[in-house]
Model the fold of this input.
Amino acid sequence: MAFSADELRVLRRALSAALQSSTMIPTPDEVRDYLRLAEDVDEAAREGGRLRTFQLAELARYRAALPGSAAGYLERLTGALDMGYVPLPDDLAALRRLHDAPCTDAEAQRRRAVLRRCEHLAELDVRARLEARIPAPSQPCGTPSAGRARLRALPGGRSASDDPKPGPKPEPKAPPAEPAAPEPGEEKRKVPTPAEIFPPRRRSAPPPEERATG
Done:
């Protein structure tokens, strides 16, 4: 995209006003110039899109007319590559057919150079799409990650060992308390025997008549 001298002057003023927005207030004429420049830039972008669409359509027509349109096809393909065009599988197949077709040495060298360039660009495009879809490889188990290394570097972070430290061992239980000893002067009570609690009954004496009879 090319700017004229007037457009460059307006663009320079716009950039200066953007850098000094706190101290510089644009005049109404400058505001109109800025809006006109923005419209011109939008129109140039739309025109560039239309030109690109036309060039790609021309490239497809020349590709469909191969091998008779080899010279025009190579010229338009080279121009599209200079504008950032990524070759399609149809372009690679067409270039390989042209590479195998009989031609002069200069033309064969030209076709070979375009084919190598297209293959390189197509390979870069495939790699970029794969890297965008496939996530980054995970960290190996034996290698500490960067986040854990930063945690160890911070005060209060984890130690060099990633394994958690064993917790404190449980304290042994205290033995059961023994019965308290009797206070000094307190006499021990004797445990009564069953005979003392339940004394045996004494047999009563027989009546006198029975003694006489006997």
Notes: Residues 67-133 form one domain. Residues 139-145 have pLDDT under 50 and may be disordered.
